[in-house]
Specification:
The complex is a heterodimer. By secondary structure, chain A is an alpha/beta fold. Chain A has 8 helices and 10 strands. Chain A starts with a helix and ends with a helix. Classes of the chains: A alpha/beta, B mainly alpha. The structure holds adenosine-5'-triphosphate and magnesium ion.
Chain lengths: 267, 255
Amino acid sequence: MSTAERALRADARIRIRELGKHYGPLEVFRDVNLEVGDREIVSIVGPSGCGKTTLLRCIDGLIPASSGTIEIEGEKVTSPLPGIAMVFQHFGLFPWKTVFANIAYGLKLAGVPKAEIDARVPRFIKLVGLNGFEHAYPYQLSGGMQQRCGLARALAIEPRVLLMDEPFAAVDAQTREILQFELLRIWQLRPTSMVFVTHSIEEAVLMGHRVVVLKGRPAGVFETIAVDLPHPRTRATLSYPRFSALREHVWTTLMDEARAAELLLQR
Amino acid sequence: MLTRASRWSRWAISLLALALGALLWQAVASRTNPAFLSSFTATAARIAELAANGVLTDALRSSLAVYLTGLSAAIVIGVTIGLVLARVRLLRVALESYIMLLYATPMVALIPFIMSMMGFGFAPKALVVFLFAFFSVLYNTIEGARSLKPEMLEVAYSFRSGEWGVWRDVLVPYTLPFALTGIRQGIGRGLVGLVAGEFFLSGSGIGLLIMQSERDFDVPALYGSIVVIAVLGAALMGVGRMLENRFAAWRGLAR
Ligand SMILES: Nc1ncnc2c1ncn2[C@@H]1O[C@H](COP(=O)(O)OP(=O)(O)OP(=O)(O)O)[C@@H](O)[C@H]1O
Ligand SMILES: [Mg+2]
């Protein structure tokens, strides 16, 4: 995206400029520029280890960037800002808290009064379909249910920015599909800024308004693909010819590198 | 979770085993010189007698005062220092070797030193109990708190938790079951410390009762005081185990 183009986006909630990050001698990514609108889902795909989780951690203010800046609604991110919620690749549920207490956690820390928490948590438990499991501990839940709980915890604070780190990677294919459409439905009810990291190209195209391909060593934004599929997206979306075309496009963009590596091996 | 029926059957089996043990004791004692072994019934009768004339209750009261003082200090200080050390790397690294050394030291070896420093009163005996129990509590708390996955802290920080919140929502609830394991060990070790202190420092409480009974060839009283202290130890460990189960429910271990 050129500077002129970037200046045009008035609705950008997240602004990432010239972002670079290295761990000691390891340069993970450099010159990452990205803007996410206030009602936009941006999918991020890229090979394992290219820095997707690192990028989300930077946006969440958990780790400092090495260069460049991140702004959320004009405020520079130097530590975790209010109203940003992350759904973790590792679920990140507290095993010593019940489902209810886990979902209430973010609200409690945000200083929401107890009466309000008691009213709000059951709504989100219902929203993600965990009714009846309020008092269960995480070890009593299946992987898919744990991920729903993590999702509810993030949604409960009604975040202005939702950061999703391969949220459905650890669940089975069917649960995954259910959760994808559930999330789309929830987003439709209350649209917000979302950065959606995934390994699945289908999922990236299905969820995103745009798909950002991270690639290279150090990684950078290799290509941004606009997903011109109609909303709301449903199961029917998966069978559109346009969906297949976009999926192929992202696949080719991503696979160039893998194919090159393969050729190198054959030699 | 045990069902009501299986809990009853457990109680029944335990009681039955204890009753069989008592019978066996009685049988062996009837074939042994009563100067070496007092029978179950004689021991039980002597316990009742000592309890009635106040000797046993006084001894217990005096011992418990020493024991609970030392033990509660060990628990409070051990858990607090353990959590702080788990959070402050510099302190932990600096003190690690000392803790390992002291955890491995047979504390009895320190008793002569404590005697020369503090004499024979209440305080040195409570200190002995403290020392016997403290390092179990400390060591288990540190090791437990350190096994907390960094992901858990990441979640806390992501939701903008401060240090106080990290302690309240993450560190303390996570570490509690580990600390309780240490406390349970400390209960047992502290009891050893109690009797050792009462033997080697100034004679008092149950320790004195044991020594006096031996000197007076009062074999039933000797066995009686040993039984009382064993039962006391077992009961306290039972309480420890109960607390551990209560606060470790989230780990989903079989009870
Ligand atoms: N705390 C850290 N210290 C040093 N290196 C790190 C650290 N965290 C990540 N890295 C390195 O940074 C690179 C990017 O890691 P990151 O977890 O962001 O990748 P990713 O794109 O999320 O991978 P995946 O798709 O497998 O989740 C990797 O090479 C990783 O080894
Ligand atoms: Mg990752």
